[in-house]
Amino acid sequence: METWEWIVLAFAIAAALLLLAAFVSIRRRRGRLVERFGPEYERAVSSSGRSGAERRLSAVEKEHDDLDIRPLSHAARDRYRDEWKQAETRFVSDPRDAARAAERVVSRILDERGYPVGVDTEDQAAHVAADYPDVVERYRHGHAMLENVDGAQGTENLRRAMLDFRAVFEEVIEDARTAA
Prior knowledge:
Helices cover 81% and strands 0% of the residues. By secondary structure, the chain is mostly helical. It folds into two domains: 3-66; 74-179, no CATH class.
């Protein structure tokens, strides 16, 4: 073989190796995102396509990893459990206020644990999904039910919001690091 043929062959092999490395890297990143975000990954893919979803979730993952997420103290958990019981007790007499109180309890827990506050529900949900992928849809649904309380279904939607926030509450108040 002539020298130029060796150069072309080496270039082709190098290009193939680079493509293989890129493919493996993409698959690894995708697997990591699927594992971390669970159902949230599929939801993001269905709404913005695979590459858009992976870019967004990678950005959320990086931002989330920079947060100082911390467990609640035992005293804080007890305080939030008491507040939650009060919200549930009020549901019979004032369902709207009780559901809003439940939402506030969950928001305050997330704030105290170090999740971003002052962001829209979708951004906060993405950060919740990074740690609690199995309940993030309940978080979204609870917010949606609170926004749809007019008409004949109002009380039923408030009840659903309470149930959704209860599921989120139970997950975020306990942290694997403190429960162990």
